[in-house]
Specification:
Shape: rod-shaped
Structural class: mainly alpha
Distance between the termini: 117 Å
Number of strands: 2
Radius of gyration: 37 Å
Number of domains: 2
Strand content: under 5%
Protein name: GL16664
Helix content: 55-70%
Number of helices: 6
Strand order of the largest sheet: 1-2
Oligomer: single chain
Length: 137
């Protein structure tokens, strides 16, 4: 009998598996519902990440300012053809239209050209249309 009590005091060394489940954690639930919930949560996280990346990209694009060279038709030696060619190169890399184009042009044009700009601008104007009007002037 002494042997039996000593045997019970010895920790299990892989000889006997414990049979009591009192206090044991329940096995994880790996049913379809569990996996579906996990994947849906992961998809929501990915969507939030994508939305935040798109929002930061859009704000960066809106913050981009294109600076055009100054042009004053009233200044001595003003070369409208050279200015137009320079702006054409800039517009080829960073095309602007509408209000963004009007803002860039209003910062660029001075003197009589600035006044003329306010007379010819319209909603949604694009560089080719402005260039044609500018060359005709």
């Amino acid at each position: 009998m002494a042997d039996e009590s000593q045997e019970n005091d010895v920790p299990h060394q892989g000889l006997h598996a414990p049979t009591s489940e009192v206090g044991s954690a329940s096995p994880p639930d790996h049913s379809d519902k569990y996996w579906r919930t996990l994947l849906e949560a992961q998809n929501r996280n990915f969507m939030e990440l994508i939305k935040s990346m798109q929002a930061s990209k859009n704000s960066e694009e809106k913050a981009k300012v294109v600076t055009l060279p100054k042009y004053n038709a009233d200044a001595v030696g003003a070369d409208s053809a050279a200015w137009c060619k320079t702006v054409y190169i800039i517009m080829a890399e960073d095309p602007l239209e509408g209000s963004a184009l009007v803002m860039a042009l209003s910062d660029s044009l001075e003197g009589g050209a600035s006044q003329w700009l306010s007379q010819i601008c319209y909603t949604g104007i694009k560089w080719p249309a402005f260039r044609d009007l500018f060359v005709q002037r």
